[in-house]
Amino acid sequence: MNYNQFFKEELNKLKDEGNYRVFADLEKIAGNFPQALNYKEDNVSEVTVWCSNDYLGMSQKNIVIESMINAIQKVGAGSGGTRNISGTNHYHVLLERELCYLHQKEAALLFNSGYLANQATLSTLGKKLPDCVFISDEKNHASMIQGIKNSGAKKLIFKHNDLIDLEKKLQAAEKNQTKVILFESVYSMDGDFSPIKEICKLAKKYNALTFLDEVHAVGIYGNRGAGVAEKLGVMDQIDIIQGTLAKSFGVIGGYITGRKELVDFIRSFASGFIFTTSLPPCIAAGAYASIRHLKFSDEERKLMLDNVKKLKYQLKKNNIPFLDNNSHIIPVLIGDPKLCKKASQILLDDFRIYVQPINHPTVPRGTERLRITCSPNHSQKMIKELVKAFKLVFENLSIKYAA
């Protein structure tokens, strides 16, 4: 076996398909979000970022930055261990308490990422619950899929947001089988919402646990930024709410919230939690400051959602095809991996606009897209420049894909 040749051939396949990923070497400019420096071999240029998951620009907020600086000066850089062995700092405790308040739950548990929160929690539930079956939306995130795989538990996949198919899958499971329904509140690639209320009713009818991924919703939706479940008034009907600190809250990390016994069960059995060094205390301090700020401030949400509305209007006016599912996520559809990559490169090179191409396997083949996200800091001028650039690129590349 020529291992290196195998790796090379597999990478060449990706390149031939147009699905090979190239990272933009960016450096955010503090205090000037969404501007960033784009480092190339021959030069450095300033670009406008239009695809960040830092939805509310909280990574740039003075209150967050100052909280992190204060914490690092007070306790140092790293946590120094796992949560069990010297790695539980008071900042972690305060943050978990704040997450309980945010989601109106009895307990919360921090993880080093949202991916790990999903993977570790679901793999633990699947391994430990007797005769467990996961009933999962077909468009759930890779971390949820991996958690199911790692658990070795049975799984049933229901058609995306299809309540009739979900009920069929619940009926297909044995009456006394333990069941966990997995779904997201906002799906990150299409920007559509799940029917949370209706799923909760089915869960109650068939005695199933509900696991809701709110990573693209926390900070943005609900009166205090707790997510779509808060907006709909159904947080108390969700058994496990999983979220992230890495998007609207502007730092890094993930978490789950739920009943005391359930969260303690995951804390006690999840290897992905037990055997990893905890988040640096300064990260916990920054997240704590960000969550508390957004609980009482509507300004960032309103500005961001207003920009979303303005951008959608301009895109429609200029016949740029995009999916509009009434969320803050705007997928501009291309439908071809090579064209999608080329469009992204032209936007970056000629217009100093950065929008990363989204190709397979993140989205199905034939639905390749440029996924746009607004922030409170994007200006009206930036919006007009983006749409003008899109129009020129679409015309030059003869892109005619429509939703």
Query: Strands of the biggest beta sheet: in what spatial order?
Result: 4-10-9-8-7-5-6
Q: Helical content, roughly?
A: 40-55%
Structural class of the helices, strands and pairings?
alpha/beta
Number of helices: 14
Give average pLDDT, whole number.
Answer: 96
Shape: globular
Gyration radius (Cα, Å) is 22 Å
Element-level helix/strand string: HEEEHHEHEHEHEHEHEEHHHHEHEEEH
Low-pLDDT sequence parts: none
- β content, as a range? 15-25%
**Major β-sheet, in short?**
7 strands, mixed
Outline the structure in words.
The mean pLDDT is 96. Helices cover 43% and strands 16% of the residues. A hairpin with a 4-residue loop joins strand 2 (35-39) and strand 3. It has helices at residues 3-17, 62-75, 90-103, 114-128, 142-151, 163-172, 196-205, 228-232, 260-269, 271-274, 281-296, 299-317, 337-351, 380-396, and strands at 26-28, 35-39, 44-49, 107-111, 132-137, 154-158, 178-184, 209-213, 240-244, 254-258, 329-333, 353-354, 357-358, 369-373. With 403 residues, the chain is of the alpha/beta class.
